Each structure stands twice: as structure tokens, then as C-alpha cells.
Amino acid sequence: MSDFSSWVSARQSRFEEVLMRLLPQADVLPQRLHAAMRYSVLEGGKRVRPLLAYAAGELAGATVERVEIAAAAVELIHAYSLVHDDMPCMDDDVLRRGKPTCHVEYDEATALLVGDALQSLAFQLLSEHRLSDDAAKQLQMVKLLAVASGSRGMAGGQAIDLASVGKQLALPELEQMHIYKTGALIRAAILLGAHCGTLHQAQLDQLDRYGKCVGLAFQVVDDVLDSEADTATLGKTAGKDADNDKPTYVTLLGVQAARKMAADLHGDALEALAGFGAEARRLRELADFIVMRKF
Ligand code: GRG
């Protein structure tokens, strides 16, 4: 196992323990809602956002206990978005992470409440744990996650996405949609991890640039992987989104150009870290992983 793989595995298993501890226990009232929350968050997921938060926190000299609270808040928002995204009123998916989606395993009303409660829990965590010695900075962290997940972030990106079904978007519009929908939370994960430690504003700006690039690269790669899966398993024409005819980087650019775009974004992400030394190694490795991943 490479040094990076051991780093990833160690943090993933540590983070699973953190989530198990922070989520309400399933035997506490309301048991069904709590069980559904745990079902939707635990055992599954690559934990890319928490890994980015850990890596940024390490770079900023933060304590791991602080970073993982911030990372958990981000991951709970991510999990809520997946639960809602899978519902019949949105993507209407029956499988997520290899198991029935929350509304299939439980019911729609429960899935709606799971998303709501996970979102509230995320902000509860950010406000009840001390994440910075500077109270004003901690308040700024709460705002950062609120903006990243709201109408000028993930929820806004989802709204643009839903409105784009069956339409032809231009590249800048598609990019803006993904900067909101996927990129905002990835950037927030990195910045929140960094805010748990100490960096100068110029360094935070560099990290934000890195986050913007890896956030977009993550989505481009996701589109390429989806298109390959469609072609392989469904015999569909490469480039057609299997779900609902939504525009993607692949439908717009073709697979080769989408791959090139991911490679360029990868290069830009590494360039944004040029001012950091060896301490940014994990962030560089995570950029490599995001672009080269196969799942
Ligand atoms: C419902 C407000 C609201 C927002 C939904 C993020 C999102 C917005 C929907 C997810 C749809 C989707 C498949 C987007 C593509 C990129 C993405 C976020 C994939 C899932 O993230 P991963 O790969 O998932 O990190 P895991 O399971 O590894 O956590």
C-alpha cells in the first residue's frame, strides 16, 4: 500500500468513527428518522470532501479534532444533498452507494426529513464545537458553509441543473452550474479545514483557487465516468446522459476534450499550490486522485 493510500485509509476509518459518534443513535426518539439518517450517511462514500478538509487542516497546522468536526459538517450537507437528489421529485434514483436510496428503504417523507435534519445537524456541529480560538473567525466558517450550500452554492446549482433538462447549455453556463452545484461544497471543505488552523489570507486565496479547480475537475471526471458506464452497461450512445437528457461536459465537448479539460484543471490546481512546500503533498495527491479515479 502506498503512503498516500495508507493516509487515506487511516483518515477514512477515523472519520467513520467520528460520524458514528456525531449522528444521533438509532434507539433515540424519533428512532425511525435517526435510523434513516445513519443509513444515509454511514458505510459508503469516498469521503472526498472530508479528506480534502483533513489535508488542508494538516497544511494549516490545525488539530485533527477540530478539522473533523468541520469535515463532518460538510459531509452531512453532502449526504443530505444526495438523499434529496435521489427523490422522485428530482433524479428519482433507486440505488445509491450500492444500496436502496433513502426514500426506497424508508419512504419519501422520511427522506425529506433526513435531508432537513442532516442539514441542521451540520450547522449545529459548526456552532457548538470550538473550531477556532477566534470567535469571529468561527462565525465566518458558519457563513462559509451556509453560502456554499445555499442558493448561491449547491442548492442554486441544483436548481440550474433541474432547469437545464432537455436544453443545450453553453460551456460557461455549464461551468457556472457546476461551480455552484459540486464545486462550492468542495471549496468549502478545503477552506473550513484550513480555517481550523492558521494561514495568511494570500495562502487561503491560493487554496481557494486550488479548490475551484479540483471542484470542477471532480465534476468533469464524474461526467466522463458516467458516460463510460452508460456506454459499457447500457449500450447507449456515448455522450448521452442516461438519466434525463441533462447537458454534461461529455455531451458538450465529447469524451476526449472533457478528459483534456480535467487534465488542464489538474495542472491549474497543482499550480495554485506552487507557493506551498512539501506540507501541501496530500492536497497534490488528492488532486491526482480526483482526476485519475475510476469510480
Ligand atoms: C438536492 C440541494 C440538492 C442538491 C443536490 C450534489 C448534488 C446536488 C447532487 C448529486 C448529483 C450528482 C451525482 C452530482 C455529481 C457529482 C457528485 C456530487 C457526485 C456524488 O459525490 P461523490 O462521488 O459521492 O463524492 P460519494 O458517494 O462518494 O460520497
Give short descriptive properties of this protein:
single chain, binds geranylgeranyl diphosphate, Farnesyl Diphosphate Synthase, 295 residues, mainly alpha, 2 strands, 1% strand, two-stranded antiparallel ribbon, 13 helices
Verbal overview:
The structure is a single chain. The chain has 295 residues and is an all-alpha fold. It has one domain (3-292): Farnesyl Diphosphate Synthase (Orthogonal Bundle). The chain contains 13 helices and two strands. The protein has helices spanning 3-22, 31-41, 48-59, 64-85, 102-105, 108-128, 135-149, 154-163, 171-195, 201-234, 249-253, 255-272, 281-292; strands at residues 95-96, 99-100. The chain has a two-stranded antiparallel sheet. Strand 1 (95-96) and strand 2 (99-100) form a beta hairpin. Helix 10 (201-234) packs parallel to helix 13 (281-292). The chain is globular. The two termini are 19 Å apart. The model is unreliable at 236-242 (pLDDT under 50). It binds geranylgeranyl diphosphate (GRG). Geranylgeranyl diphosphate binds at residues 45-46, 48, 81-82, 84-85, 97, 154-155, 158, 181-182, 219, 222.
